[in-house]
Amino acid sequence: MRPPYRIATTGQTFTVWKAFSGTNKNTRIWRIRQRPLIKSRAGKPRMARKGAGEEEMPCFAFLHRLSGFKNFTQVAGALAFVLAGVLAGLFAMPPRAQAQGLEHLSSSYVTPFPERNRYRLYVFGDSLGDGIWAGLYRAFKPDGNIDVVKKSRVSTGFVRTDYFDWNKRLSGILTTEKVHIAVIMVGANDMQPIRPNKKSKWKKVGTPEWREIYSKRIDRFIKRLKKSRAAVYWVGLPIMRSAKYNDKMQLM
Fold first, then answer.
1. CB within 8 A of 43, min separation 6: which ones?
2. How deeply is 153 buried, as exposed, middle or buried, from its count of CB atoms within 10 A (0-12, 13-18, 19+)?
């Protein structure tokens, strides 16, 4: 796979090897574009557009159909193999090519020569982040130069900081540990009211006040990682089975 690649979020386009099908077409490249789940097409794995000349479907539904996984935590693990291909291609590039390949994605970058020539890849997020970690761990286990570290935690997000504060947690991690690559998948638990502090009133989901508070917390998290010179990959949420719930997730 030739870098650079973009990790897909809703509405973006990316390319993967069709390696999950187990067919003799595993060398063919398929282009997939995530699209909002259309209620009338719910449950249909293929969402072909007439005249497109290629198959289009939600990427998680694509992986779900090919792999036979039963839940999205497992599907997240499958997506991790796509991400692993992205990162593997990145590691194979010379430092200058790495920088050029990431210019249009982010100002953060992968340290060309880390200490002891070992990369430390950290996975942050909720239960879906667990699936990403599991997939990346298996993908990179044969490679002795990459440590995949699990920092994901179930039932967490950026809304209920009274339960778990990701920004405080990250500050503690970066104080004692070196993160070369950060992969983040979070948001499935965040469709609930938010407040900036314990003395403030709760803000309803989707309101301008809610968006402002939520975005500031995420910005702080990402900026802290980039300040430590970590390459940051934010993985978008999957297409949800429930059309009603999926509509809510589009806000994330």
1. none
2. middle
Q: Is 83:235 a contact under the CB 8 Å cutoff? A: yes
Q: What is the pLDDT of residues 176-191, one digit of tens each?
A: 999 999 999 999 999 9
Residue 162 lies in a domain: yes
The tens digit of pLDDT for each residue in 33-64 reads 333 333 334 444 443 333 333 333 333 333 33
What pLDDT band is residue 102 in, cutting at 50, 70 and 90?
A: very low
**Neighbour-count burial of 26, counting CB atoms closer than 10 A to its CB (0-12 exposed, 13-18 middle, 19+ buried):** exposed
182: tokens are: 């950060």
CA geometry: angle at 167 spanning 36 and 164, to 5°? 80
- Domain limits for position 236: 71-249
Decide if 107 is inside a domain.
Answer: yes
Total domains in the chain come to: 1
CATH number of the domain enclosing 94: 3.40.50
- Domain contains 61: no
41 burial via Cβ count (<10 Å: 0-12, 13-18, 19+): middle
More confident residue, 10 or 101: 101
Is 46 a member of any domain?
no
